[in-house]
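Page 42, continued from yesterday. The earlier attempt failed because a stray header line got pasted into the input along with the sequence. Redoing it now with the clean sequence only.
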Amino acid sequence: VEWRRGDIFGKGDTNVEDIFYVTHSTPDAVRCLQLRGEYLYTAQGSGGFQVLDVASVANKDISQKVITAPFSPLGQRVRVPSKNATCMALPTGQSIAPERNTAQMRKVNQEQAFHPIYSYAFVTDAEEGLILVDINTFNDRDPRNNNIRRALTWNPDGVLNGARHITVGGYYAYIATPRGLVVLDLNDPLKQVLDVTKMDKPKMIDGARFLLDDARRVYVARTFAYVAAGKDGLVIVDVKNPEKPKPYWSKPFENADTQDVIVGSTNASLFAYVADGKNGVKVLQLTSPKSQPNFYGFSPPPKPEVIAWTKTPTPALALSKGLDRDRAVDETGNQIAVFGRLGSRPFHRDEMEKFFVDWKGLQYRVSDEPVKADFVGLSDALKPPVQADDKNKKSGPLRRDVSVSPKKIVRN
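This time it went through. Structure tokens are written below.
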């Protein structure tokens, strides 16, 4: 970013500091990127997938802030060529090292093994489909062996032709294509399974639609969805009830060209970072003690204010997601961090679901109109049946057999 910090704000501060753009040329537009540790992972269109070393991006003693190698590029290979790399995703933005999670370490720490997905970057290509790249070499703290190559290319019957975006949640990948959403089961990353409620079975819900003319990207934070809406600027949608989204706020920036939005917290304030295409980058403060006195709590209503913006040498198309704080388990129950106590593993997905899914496979919900029969007075014959665990297992509660429905309950 190119700007000057100091007396320009009119407060008599004589400590002036110039901050300049940090740029790096790429063969084609970068429409997806993700920072992890000292490396930036990028999808570069016709340039394929490339990993850049950004360890010195804030080091004033280094002239070249973004490099492909700390020495001659002949000694390594950090690019995987492809025809049209449109997007990429990492299972986590945390600095991890799956290969250091050895059997001996797991035994001593009483931990679980890393899921295989954490060894890969997942790249979508509009012509080639899904490309998996093993990126473990960037986790071993040795810059001399940074050579990457394809581990898999997957596109049976052209199901991923035109793929333009990918999101990874646990071991499921959600890929946007011209024909709709494609869901892949990556439980065995090198043997893809095509799946199309649960995470692997999304479905359209009547009324769960919010129409926009030019939506590009969406970022969900707590009970609000922030939409980069192209010519309509930034749109915030209230998704407290995901089945009935409703408008909350919109900002039609002047000559808007909004491509991407990322939400993140700094100290006690919430910010939206907006890639506004030809207009550069904008920063919106979403909460502050002045604009939103009730900024505490799970999901305080945002009060957006544009507090900074800057032009960029080329259109701003994408932003890197920030680090998810205190994230030790993914959406499918896989451990991705060391816990504070020996043997304190996270719940697996089926264990998690016991807290929020009923015997019908539906989410537990609350109602403003309670029915007494839901809580007391049910005979054993009317209660959902249960099925005992293996008798040799002494841990875990009884499991409900969801294959058998209870008798119909008649309420007066």
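Notes: The mean pLDDT is 84.
Reminder to self: strip header lines before submitting.
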